[in-house]
Specification:
Elements: E1 2-7, H1 12-25, E2 29-36, H2 40-46, E3 51-56, H3 62-80, E4 87-90, H4 94-103, E5 106-110, H5 119-125, E6 128-132, H6 137-142, E7 149-152, H7 158-161, H8 170-176, E8 184-189, H9 204-214, E9 219-223, H10 228-237, E10 243-244, H11 252-258, E11 261-264, H12 268-276, E12 280-282, H13 290-297, E13 302-303, H14 307-312, H15 329-338
Parallel strand pairs: 1-2, 1-4, 2-3, 4-5, 5-6, 6-7, 8-9, 8-11, 9-10, 11-12, 12-13
Length: 340
């Protein structure tokens, strides 16, 4: 088959790169598109994925979101008409799923967050929906996907991290940022301020934890803002020399593996830490996902809800990695995508 994969956000790059290799090993061909959002295009280029870029994020304004959504659907559909596509695969990127429905192309949508408003569209547009076992059944019914949903054991991060090997050259990249092996490395990812599920949310705990750990000269914080303006605002509030905002995108899995502590206001980076056995803390301010509760219940993640929770965390060198080792996840997810 000729499979079209759309990269709508930065975490899609490692996830679909791993699945694309699985598809290609089975004799299929993969073509790529991407949305210019966060570090998606830069990471795709670094990964050697020849993705054609269509559209940008609509920002905070609902009308702007709708306009850019419609334009991206139109542009993707026009592009896809000449591509002989057999299957569209998306991780909740709504535009390619709508374009596929318009063009009569079979599509598969993967998703692990049941509270995203876009699920109402993406789950209905897709011909098949694939979710982790922890995804609530009631949510599948709410989004009209009960009969077309398939489940897999584990989390999506198992798909590309079950066989993770540390890049020996990555330590050099950290040293170039001023971070030495003896330093405690804390990786922080703020919330997505423009996401529909984070509209109007101010995450004061983020400022508290940055100031707390930056007060220790042996702690170095790699801060990964989602948008340039977010980084500018955070730098103005936190000018400490041991808070680093990298000028170019770093390999996410290598950074998480090198970290002694990971704190995120989103989902993927914390789940990457959980998959690798790195101490992970969530400061997600929206409605928590069932997948995160699963990781909390199994001891792979902790929640920061109050200032007292921030004070209780001790930043220290981790003992080592403790991967989940769910090596069957990649083949299982690929099977579910490709089956008739």
């Amino acid at each position: 088959m000729r499979i079209w994969i759309d990269l709508g956000n930065s975490p899609h790059v490692p996830f679909f790169r791993a699945l694309a290799k699985e598809f290609e090993d089975r004799g299929h061909e993969v073509v790529w598109t991407a949305r210019d959002y966060a570090q998606t295009v830069e990471l795709a280029r670094k990964a050697g994925l020849n993705a054609e870029v269509f559209g940008t994020h609509g920002g905070k304004n609902i009308a702007a979101k709708a306009g850019k959504f419609a334009k991206r659907v139109f542009d993707l559909a026009r592009w896809a008409r000449g591509q002989r596509i057999d299957l569209v695969v998306s991780h909740n990127s709504q535009e390619p799923l709508v374009a596929a429905r318009v063009l009569g192309i079979r599509s598969v949508n993967l998703m692990d967050y049941e509270h995203h408003p876009g699920n109402h569209l993406s789950f209905r547009a897709a011909h098949r929906v694939i979710v982790p076992e922890s995804f609530p059944e009631a949510a599948l019914g709410k989004f009209g996907a009960m009969k077309k949903a398939k489940r897999f054991a584990g989390i999506k991060e198992d798909v590309y991290l079950s066989d993770h090997a540390t890049d020996p050259e990555f330590e050099g990249e950290l040293k170039a940022l001023g971070i030495m092996p003896g330093n405690i490395l804390v990786v922080v990812r703020p919330h997505a301020p423009e996401a529909l599920y984070h509209r109007g949310v101010e995450n004061r705990l983020l400022d508290e934890l940055l100031d707390r750990w930056a007060a220790d000269e042996n702690v170095w914080i790699v801060l990964l803002p989602r948008k340039k303006y977010q980084g500018t605002e955070l730098r103005a509030r936190h000018p400490q020399r041991n808070i680093i905002i990298p000028e170019s995108a770093l390999d996410g899995a290598s950074l998480v593996a090198a970290a002694d502590l990971v704190i995120s206001g989103g989902g993927t980076m914390n789940r990457e830490a959980a998959a690798l056995g790195v101490p992970a803390y969530t400061i997600f301010a929206g409605t928590p996902a069932a997948i995160d509760q699963y990781l909390i219940d199994t001891g792979r993640m902790k929640a920061i809800r109050t200032s007292e929770d921030v004070v209780a965390i001790n930043a220290r060198k981790k003992a080592g990695l403790a991967p989940r080792g769910n090596s069957a996840a990649r083949a299982r997810v690929a099977d579910l995508i490709l089956e008739d």
